[in-house]
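User: My collaborator sent over this chain with a note saying "see what the structure looks like." That's all I know about it. Can you take a look?
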Amino acid sequence: MLALRYLKRNNIPYAFYINGGIVAHKESKLYKKIKTYFISGARYYFSPALKANEYLEYYGAPKELIFNYPYSTVYEKDIVETAKSPEQKQSYWDKLKVKGENFTICITSFIKRKNNLSLIKAWKKVDKKHALILVGEGKEEKLYRHYIKEHELQNVFMLPFAPKNQVFEYLSYSDNAIYISNYDIYGHVINEALAHGLNVLTNTNMVAAHYAIKNGENGFVMQKGENINDYINKLFVSNFFDHARESAVTIEDSIDVHLKILGEKL
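Assistant: Without extra context I'll predict from the sequence alone. Here is the result:
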């Protein structure tokens, strides 16, 4: 904010860059005025998706000055080439005391916004051979553990926060990934799951769902009011490995688009 004030006061042209955004329609007029001051006035804007463009436009960015780029946290080298066998997956997770024949992962924060409790509740109706693995940390951890214990969910497992290289290893030994946040400004975890060839289930509350997932082709997008267990069951009989990998975007892709935009505008 200090940097933006300096640029504005000294008439220095700049680009405003976001990795996602959701319009807060219920915020006060003062909050909107402050956000509009800081967001408006850039020479150019960079946004990861058309859905995020709405955020910039709402707070004063001219539509014609917004350029879209593929947002990614994976390099080309991170995209898996071959799928692990069921035996390899079971052996790997068995060492971490995770039992199952099919493995669904959710790399997340244990907070209300991520809607993880709804996912855990849905797992009550899932066959015990299908394991759900939550990886992360947060204020709701005790709540999750209490619910899992109370309902004797032997196929739901919780692992602590992990660094990126460990997360990518977890993904490579998983079959599916589920992200059903109440809202998310983007959701880079979706692209990370695609890069590892997973069957992905997400919902329209995540901006990345509108950009990264083609429903029924490389994953599933759940609409408001639909039954999550219907989609979970679809995951178990799907194999989007090739389509998922092909649709994942990389940091190299992002660089190419940035260079093209900058080359045309500077």
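A starting point for your reply to your collaborator: The longest helix spans residues 251-265.
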